[in-house]
Design a protein that fits this description.
Length: 721
């Protein structure tokens, strides 16, 4: 009655279906979907009660709820929303017959048979049940590439096989028309063994070696223990590494870190030694079973600070499986979710071995990265390789520059990259210098035209044409030939022809021949542009005779004669008239009258007196011309009287006799008696007035009476001054 309650209460199914991957089966339909609670990919099996015998549907639903064994498809939920429909939700599985299993390699097919044999063995020993319906249509593949069994319509207990024996014929009637679901005849006790032999023969038709025939014969006869013997035979098969790898991966989750590293190291060595066994495996085995364990082991080594040398083999194996020229794992989702984060992390590792691995696989994974990812997460660390001290790293980095173009920003291309290429162009290695000019040629069409592209290219080509080695020079001429369409006529005329010109005189014949060919290409383009130039309508034709006249000395003679005549006419007639002051003016200081005023107010608010303009100019005659002369302000001073008085009465000083004693050094500490010239005397302020100026004549007489007292102690300076 539970399903009635769910139907009445408008029960919502806990999953969604894509609606396009519906596969019809003998007992129902199968389609992919997603669980709503956690977006887990699932497979929805839908059964209609009016199309499936009740005995089969009831037994199948019951066994799905009871049997939870490895090797059986994992059942997540059983939903019965109504009386006419039943939903069984399992992990995401795919029917084997819907895959191209004929293209699986032999080892992959044997691994699948081995997994089915293990499931039957577990079902017999732990579940105490038989499967009873082993056929190609009831074998599925889960997301990890494991072969699992589903469809328990005939499954029954080993102690009570009545359900199988009574319904086997009905089952064959229902699946009639479905070749992959037809079952063979046999008793209940050995039916699984017989069906496994038929399954083995169908998958490996004409590929069964003689060593396997005895085991297959025992299975076909239904002998007791035949399934166990098949399992043992496969486990000891040295030619199939997939079986041992699968056994190790099944139990790796219970191993400690050291054992995990050891197991995965052995697997890595097997892949490196021979990867043929890993080609065309069951989808999901490498992608979601092996690869995640290799990546986890690599991260474990990095987290425990293990040497880089122990990490490089794992990284190389991962890149070989996913990023080689013919990748074994070509799944796009695997690259986006597992490999891309690993690439970003590896570019930040400062180790040359890691960087070399990245550069070897760079062209392949660059195609799968977006432009923003390359510009933000790859380019900043990638470009550092061009400045590496190791020549191999620089060369490999330079080879991969062309793969970046189109996915980096315009600034990174026109600024950052060109700046580094300018350094590699003068590298000490010939190969790097040659490759640099080839890279510049390859990215030339991507450079920004408004960023002086032609100038940049011309400069780069000029520098490489001067290289002392042959290869860079030839590479430059090759670049000029490729980039012909990037230069306009003006640039060709002004820069490019001068770049190619030195190559015509090169000491190598091949360079000269190539330079001549390239020069002719540019010359032809220049002539084509020249033919289309629009001429000026008012242009005049100038004869060469006119240039000869301009160089004639007769023209210069006429100019000289004319110049001499003009000099004679402009020369003035000299006279003997002396310089005579025709007019004298007295300079008046406007400040004197202001200071002589009795009501003079010595405050900051005094208005500045207005200056009176007087005529201070005089005129003199010189060679018959009148020349204005401005007198100086101090012409009124009687300099002659001052000089005469001073000359008559020289300044003298009277010295006191000094006692005879040793003169102390100038560095001594004896205190010197201050001289009269160094004493502080109060002096009255000098008043600038006309009266004071007139009294200046008495200064020499007063100075002559000064007596300078000699200092009593010797200070090291002479007294004669």
């Amino acid at each position: 009655m539970d399903y009635i309650f769910k139907s009445i209460s408008n029960f919502q199914l806990p999953f969604t279906t894509d609606g396009v991957s519906v596969v019809n089966m003998p007992f129902g339909t199968l389609e992919s979907g997603t669980r709503k609670s956690d977006s887990l990919p699932v497979t929805i099996h839908t059964y209609k009660t009016d199309q499936v015998p009740a005995v089969f549907l009831k037994n199948h639903v019951l066994k799905c709820k009871i049997l939870k064994l490895p090797g059986l498809a994992k059942v997540l939920d059983v939903i019965e929303p109504s009386t006419d429909k039943v939903y069984i939700i399992t992990e995401r599985i795919t029917a084997l017959n819907s895959l191209d299993y004929f293209n699986f390699n032999e080892n992959a097919l044997k691994l699948g048979i081995y997994e089915i044999a293990l499931t039957l063995n577990v079902l017999h020993q732990q579940g105490k049940s038989l499967f009873g319906a082993l056929c190609l249509g009831n074998v599925y593949v889960n997301s990890k590439g494991e072969w699992v069994l589903y469809a328990l319509e005939l499954s029954t207990s080993l102690n009570d096989t009545n359900h199988f024996t009574s319904n086997i014929q009905t089952y064959n009637d229902v699946v009639r028309g479905y070749d992959d679901w037809q079952l063979g005849n046999g008793s209940a006790s050995n039916i699984d063994s017989i069906q496994l032999a038929n399954f083995f023969n169908k998958l490996l038709t004409n590929r069964i070696s003689s060593s396997w025939k005895p085991v297959i014969s025992q299975l076909a006869k239904g002998q007791p223990g035949a399934i166990g013997k098949l399992i043992s035979k496969m486990q000891t098969d040295a030619e199939n590494p997939l079986i041992s790898i699968y056994d190790n991966l099944k139990e790796i989750h219970i191993k400690d870190s050291a054992d995990k590293v050891m197991i995965l190291s052995n697997i890595q060595q097997k892949i490196t030694a021979d990867d043929a066994s890993f080609q065309n495996c069951t989808p999901g085995f490498l992608e979601y079973l092996l690869l995640p364990e290799l990546i986890q082991c690599l991260q474990l080594l990095a987290a425990t600070n293990q040497p880089i040398s122990s990490q490089v083999p794992f990284l190389g194996t991962i890149f070989h499986l996913t990023c080689s020229d013919s990748p074994i794992i070509a799944n796009e989702d695997v690259f986006q979710n597992q490999i891309k984060p690993l690439i970003f992390q590896s570019f930040n590792v400062a180790d040359r071995q890691v960087r070399f691995l990245l550069l070897l696989h760079f062209p392949k994974f660059m195609q799968k990265l977006s432009a923003s990812e390359v510009a933000d997460k790859i380019f900043p660390t990638f470009i550092q390789g061009l400045s590496d001290t190791d020549q191999v790293i620089r060369l490999q980095t330079l080879k991969n520059v062309s793969h970046l173009i189109g996915k980096i920003t315009e600034r990174q291309l026109n600024n950052d990259l060109l700046r580094v290429l300018a350094k590699t162009q003068v590298d000490k290695d010939i190969g790097i210098r040659t490759l640099t000019i080839l890279i510049i040629t390859k990215i030339a069409h991507k450079l920004n035209k408004s960023n002086n592209r032609s100038t940049i290219l011309a400069t780069a080509f000029t520098k490489s044409l001067k290289d002392p080695e042959l290869k860079p020079r030839l590479a430059t001429l090759y670049g000029l030939e490729i980039t012909l369409d990037l230069f306009d006529a003006e640039t060709i005329a002004q820069r490019i022809l001068t770049v190619i010109g030195p190559g015509l005189l090169d000491r190598n014949k091949q360079v000269r021949t190539t330079a001549k060919k390239v020069f002719q290409m540019y010359w032809d383009k220049l002539e084509e542009e020249s033919a289309s130039v629009v001429e000026e309508d008012n242009s005049t034709f100038i004869h060469t005779e006119e240039f000869e006249k301009m160089m004639n000395d007769e023209e210069d003679g006429k100019l000289i004669n004319g110049f001499i005549q003009s000099v004679k006419l402009s020369t003035p007639t000299p006279t003997s008239t002396p310089i005579i002051l025709t007019e004298e003016t007295v300079e008046v200081d406007p400040w004197n009258s202001a200071f002589d005023d009795e009501e003079f107010d010595d405050s900051w608010n005094v208005d500045e007196p207005q200056s009176r303009t007087t005529k201070t100019d005089t005129e003199v005659k010189s060679f018959g011309f009148k020349v204005p002369v401005s007198k100086s302000w101090n012409d009124d001073l009687n300099e002659e009287s001052i000089e005469s008085e001073t000359a008559r009465k020289p300044l003298t000083s009277r010295r006191k006799p000094l006692p005879r004693q040793n003169k102390p050094s100038i560095l001594g500490k004896a205190s010197a008696k201050p001289s009269i010239l160094t004493r502080n005397k109060s002096s009255s302020p000098i008043v600038t007035s006309s009266k004071n100026i007139k009294s200046a004549t008495n200064i020499p007489s007063k100075m002559s009476n000064l007596v300078l007292d000699d200092d009593d102690t010797e200070d090291g300076w002479g007294d004669d001054w």
